[in-house]
Amino acid sequence: MSDYHRHCFILKGSLCEVLSEFLRLCKNFSAPLIAAHDVSQYDELLVPLLKTKQVKTRSFKHTRQELGSNYDAVLVDLTQGVSAGGLAILSGTVRGNGLFAIALPNQDWLKMADQELSRYLPWPYEPEQVYSNFKQYLLEHLKSTSPFQWLEPQQVSSLPELPPLNANAPLTPEQSSAQSCLFAEQAQSYVLIAPRGRGKSTLLGDSLAKLLKAGKRVAITAPNQDAIVSLKARFESLLGSSNAELPFYAPDALVDDSTYWDFLFVDEASMIPLPLLMALNQKANHCLFSTTNYGYEGSGKGFGIRFCRHLASQKTTKSLALQQLVLSQPIRWGENDPLENWINNTLLLAPKEQVEQIVNTSVSVKPPNGTTAKKILTGKNWLENSDLLNDTFQLLVSAHYQTSADNLRWILDDPSVTSFISMTAEQIHSVAIVTEEGHLPEDLSLAVMQGKRRPRGHLVPQSLLAHEGLENAGQYGYWRISRIATEQSQQNTGLASQLLSYIEESANKRCDFLCSSFAATPDVVSFWLKNGYLPVRLGTAKDQASGSYSIMMVKPLTKLATQQAAKWHSGFMEQFSMNLLLQYADLSIELILLILRQYSFHQTEVPHFVKLTQQDSHNIALFVEYHRPFDSIRPTFLKATFNLALQGQLTPTEPSHQLLLEAALGRNTEQTRQSSNLSGKKAMHQSFKKLLSTVHS
């Protein structure tokens, strides 16, 4: 095939026929891969063939392990079910002039139950009950716009042998240019952002080897070593595997290591939590963060816009805080490869914006022009609104969410999902994805609360039952805002809040609560508080992607739900106040004050556990007005600080108020004390006395 493009075929027939045709096609290829929902039948058929040909099999649930792999040929059998993420990942592993084949059955595929569908469906839906809009969408794209040839049995002949991969191939001009920028050492941090197949791993391995030869202290980290196989091959080809060992370290081990490196490379950076990336950036004179700008492992996963802005705003003695390196020329396959184009267009993985915008730190805020309209779409509606689907999905991809190809299938196929869109005639500017949850039977709710059952979906009621022990949480109906995103140039103009109001109007008399669950950061929590949502649960472990604790918030829509929400919120605040000392030592003070002060807007008096006794008031008076030592009133001081916070008298962003809570919780106060312009401990205690004077008076 010309232009180093991949061969694409649809193979139809029984499993035996498909396997026979696939093996005939790749007779001259080495170690092909077969992927399916269940590969056990392929494994059985391949047993007698393994002596003459090595064939690897992989179930769809394990396809992420193939990120970074290279194959001459891949067969993806979609007969039993479709993995959207698997399709994207596996298509990116096939080299130029190689083979990518899809297997389909002879019978009506759209009428067959899809066994992969259960991953996208909440209880009580089963694959046999649900028509897959995504399969229809995919089949239409296979028939109308794809590069695939549809073959019947006996129509194929073997493809020509491929030359062996050359680990020592010279760098392309684009790679050499990027390496020169890196070696110039003008920036504190570098980001290397490119689609799959552009030679990022080759560039990193080559650069590591050359820096090590030059006597530099270098280190490489990644989520796991499987992700850097080709990087390691390039490194060893330049140095020889016996001469130097790849300086690989696990991300957390690097943070704990006292070594300060000349260069630190972070590969697949989008798969590492944001706080960990920020910590890694402090470990070297120069850091290079490499990631895909879209595609297989999800976009915006703790990386993208937010992290690049952080890097661009850092203080540095270098000429630049951040320099971006771009690789656009495909190396693994030819330019304008039809398979890559089809996968990106079909699974909506290609970004609309240019990569360069990611590091642009100044985005002008502009309200939308023209009349704003609202739209509500469910699975089937999307098939008739393909342009809207593309624009909506691109908006989700560009936001700070783990948006991947699997989310496309979820939006199209989950009957509990509804999409709300705010748009002008010109464009979509805000979108929210809402899932229906709750109304669980009493016996199921009890089993969930006792830890005996974990039905698919129903995130909020399940968590309130299983983690908070709220025995009536399962009986209510919830609309959970699972995703909400606003076009970047129109953020902070009220569009997201307007969309939430529209969702609330639509939900009226159809459910008891609106709710959301998300990574708890001060800015995002403020948004939901502003829109009338109450916190009812805070996770006890940090989310792997965001590096933050997850918070659940609800907004009651009925009189009964309002009473229930007040009880849940009150109970949460009491547990939260105790847990601040037990397990949230790293929760930001600003976030804590935001959560505590919200109590005053919904309750008329402070809770019993912070009410000050006569003795408490006496102790505070002795501290405020006389010379009672601070350390002797610590328990009372903590209670009094909570009292002020729960009454809304402490401002989350005020340094002196943050200092008061830091001291009450026994944290290190040095940095906040300095930002409050307080010269020492005595001055700090004077500021405490001033704040506490209102409590005992």
**Gross morphology:** globular
CATH fold title of the largest domain: Aminopeptidase
Distance between the termini: 86 Å
Low-confidence runs: 295-302, 353-359
Overall mean pLDDT score?
Answer: 90
CATH superfamily of the largest domain: Gcn5-related N-acetyltransferase (GNAT)
What does the model show?
Helix content is 37%, strand content 18%. The chain has 697 residues and is α/β, with parallel strands linked by helices. The strands form three sheets. A seven-stranded mixed beta sheet has the order 12-13-14-15-16-18-17, with helices on both faces. The chain has four domains: 2-151, Rossmann fold, CATH 3.40.50; 173-331, Rossmann fold (3-Layer(aba) Sandwich), CATH 3.40.50; 373-586, 3-Layer(aba) Sandwich (Aminopeptidase); 608-696, no CATH class. Mean pLDDT is 90; it is low at 295-302 and 353-359. α23 (655-664) crosses α25 (681-696). 46% of the residues are buried. The longest helix has 24 residues, at 559-582. The chain has 25 helices and 18 strands. This is tRNA(Met) cytidine acetyltransferase TmcA.
Keywords:
single chain, 697 residues, alpha/beta, Rossmann fold, Aminopeptidase, seven-stranded mixed beta sheet, six-stranded parallel beta sheet, acyltransferase, tRNA-binding, Acyl_CoA_acyltransferase, ATP-binding, cytoplasm
Helix-strand layout with pairing:
Blueprint: E1 7-12, H1 15-25, E2 33-36, H2 40-46, E3 56-59, E4 71-77, H3 84-91, E5 94-104, H4 133-144, E6 149-151, H5 173-183, E7 187-193, H6 200-213, E8 218-221, H7 229-239, H8 251-256, E9 261-266, H9 274-280, E10 284-291, H10 304-312, E11 320-326, H11 338-346, E12 373-377, H12 379-383, H13 386-398, H14 405-413, E13 417-423, E14 428-438, H15 442-449, H16 459-466, E15 477-486, H17 495-507, E16 513-519, H18 522-530, E17 534-542, E18 549-556, H19 559-582, H20 589-597, H21 614-625, H22 634-646, H23 655-664, H24 670-675, H25 681-696
Parallel strand pairs: 1-5, 1-6, 2-3, 2-4, 4-5, 7-10, 7-11, 8-9, 9-10, 15-16
Antiparallel strand pairs: 12-13, 13-14, 14-15, 16-18, 17-18
Helix pairs in contact: 5-6, 6-7, 15-16, 21-25, 22-23, 23-25
